[in-house]
Design a protein that fits this description.
21% strand; binds iron/sulfur cluster; Hypothetical Protein Ychn, Chain: A; TIM Barrel
Length: 353
């Protein structure tokens, strides 16, 4: 299968008249100035020169901001530049991200004209009270309407949701995932809320009106959401904001993150947490006291089974006095495992003779 590369082009806060309390788009995108069509071209050329795999599928992605909210002329300019690369066969597709209230038939027709393939909508929550509380400026009805139109026009639909918004609970977040699943997205991104400098949320945090989630809390909720999306075969393209010079550990100088569940390997914490739960559940089913177990998984899954800094191996040892041996086999489907008991505790067997 061809590898896919994404050429990211960040469109900062351009045209976004909103001021969501958690957002400082300049920090999140790492982009401080407005971009021009020349910038777009330079970025694409730079990436194309540096992608060695000439067979790879290349997607040009306009991230950040609200692409369809910027002035029409600028949208056309940027899309025109990207479309040239599609026509020349140097890129396969274009992706944009935007707000649900910036989607209508006219906008979708324009995006079709330039062969945009994927549209990601910033949803954040399905709860209108929470949307209002964060000053999103749209409702969940807008999300439903936009999602239907996007699919009706034949685009690939993506959703972005947040975890840990002010006054949002675990149940709100599970409900958001349920509501999104009904709208049949092909992909989702899950972002735990980080408190970013120079945002209204920072003010609320400093005034103790907002308490961010801890890493452990955010991981636990994300595990539930990931399981829900996985069951419906909805691709999860990101969990947690991308690490950049600005989005990094709050203790590092220059970090724009003030507080919140930041972790450099957040996604791995979620995925290895799910593996840990699966292994424990399987072992409990066996109903014997096991000393050593071998788990065989696809090579792609090995790191997550072992856990960040071998966390799963250490935790199984601590909690269950169990040694975990992880082996790989490319024949095993990703996400599946085979489990072999290598050693049982003799005293346990003795007791039951
Ligand atoms: S709509 Fe998007 S870009 Fe605009 S303030 Fe909200 S999160 Fe930031």
């Amino acid at each position: 299968m061809k590898k896919q590369y994404i050429i990211p082009i960040f469109v900062p806060h351009l045209g976004c008249p909103n001021d969501c309390t958690f957002c400082n788009q300049k920090s999140i995108s790492g982009q401080k100035k407005m971009i021009t069509k020349e910038d777009v071209q330079k970025t694409i050329d730079f990436y194309l020169e540096n992608i060695r795999d000439k067979e790879a599928k290349i997607e040009i992605a306009f991230f950040g901001g609200s692409f369809t909210g910027i002035e029409e002329e600028k949208q056309e300019e940027f899309l025109q530049v990207a479309y040239e690369y599609i026509k020349q066969g140097k890129a396969e597709s274009i992706r944009i991200s935007t707000r649900p209230d910036y989607i209508n038939r006219k906008i979708l027709k324009r995006l079709k004209k330039y062969k945009v393939k994927t549209i990601e909508l910033g949803v954040q929550s399905a709860n209108d009270y929470i949307l209002k509380r964060c000053k999103r400026g749209h409702t969940f009805a807008d999300v439903k309407q936009a999602s239907k139109l996007i699919r009706w026009y034949g685009f690939k639909l993506g959703h972005q949701m947040m975890v840990g918004l002010p006054e949002s609970t675990r149940l709100d977040e599970i409900n958001t995932a349920k509501e999104l699943i009904k709208l049949k997205p092909k992909m989702v991104r899950i972002y735990p809320v980080l408190v970013i400098k120079n945002t209204k949320l920072e003010k609320e945090f400093l005034e103790e009106k907002y308490v961010p989630l801890t890493v452990v809390q955010a991981v636990e909720i994300c595990k539930e959401l990931v399981s829900m999306f996985n069951k419906k075969k909805i691709e999860i393209i990101r969990i947690g904001l991308q690490n950049t010079e600005e989005i990094t550990d709050p203790n590092i100088e220059g970090s724009e993150v003030v507080a919140g569940p930041y972790h450099p390997a957040f996604r791995q914490l979620v995925e290895s947490g799910l593996w840990y739960d699966t292994i424990v559940a399987k072992i409990k089913q066996l109903n014997v006291k096991i000393k050593k177990v071998e788990v065989i998984v696809n090579p792609q899954d090995v790191n997550n089974v072992v856990g960040h800094k071998r966390e799963n191996i250490e935790k199984l040892k601590d909690m269950y006095s169990l040694d975990l041996v992880v082996k790989q086999d490319a024949e095993i489907k990703q996400g599946r495992m085979e489990l072999k008991v290598l050693e049982k505790y003799p005293e346990f067997l003795e007791d039951h003779k």
